[in-house]
Amino acid sequence: MVKNRAEKMYDYHVWANQQLLQHLKQLPDKVYTAHIESVFSSISEVLIHLYATDIVWLETMKGSSFHDTIREVERRKSELTAVSIDKLEMCYDELSQQFQHFFAEQKDLEQILITEHPHYGRMEFIFADLVHHIVNHGTYHRGNVTAMLRQQGEAGVPTDYVFFLTRK
Known about the structure:
Blueprint: H1 5-25, H2 29-33, H3 43-61, H4 66-78, H5 85-105, E1 112-117, E2 121-126, H6 127-151, H7 161-165
Antiparallel strand pairs: 1-2
Helix pairs in contact: 1-5, 1-6, 3-4, 3-5, 3-6
């Protein structure tokens, strides 16, 4: 099945997250949880933030209310307190399956989503634009993790889109 660009970009997001998680699993455990003076206080916090934000956008695209979305994010985040990287990886895998199921149910990712936000009011998005935002947000935070790895004397892992396109 030929995927549209938004789905292909989401596949890249999943691949890049997997690359990063696999790389982190090869490093000493302390690297994942070490306190660092950075945008986030640890790599685990960055990855939990990224996971939670992906939930926000999936729930938004599914049409959940703002309050239901926040409740779902908080519920799922509470399950991740002091969780191992292996458990977090399982959560990421489950979430990517939920995204794939959502995509399969859509006839057109170019359709408009109208949602209400308590602070910003009525908002209109094209589904594909939200997918691109999810990917862009992930790229930004994977960059944070790379900087945090370097602060700890560790190398990052290449997750640029071109590496996804040329993977074997």
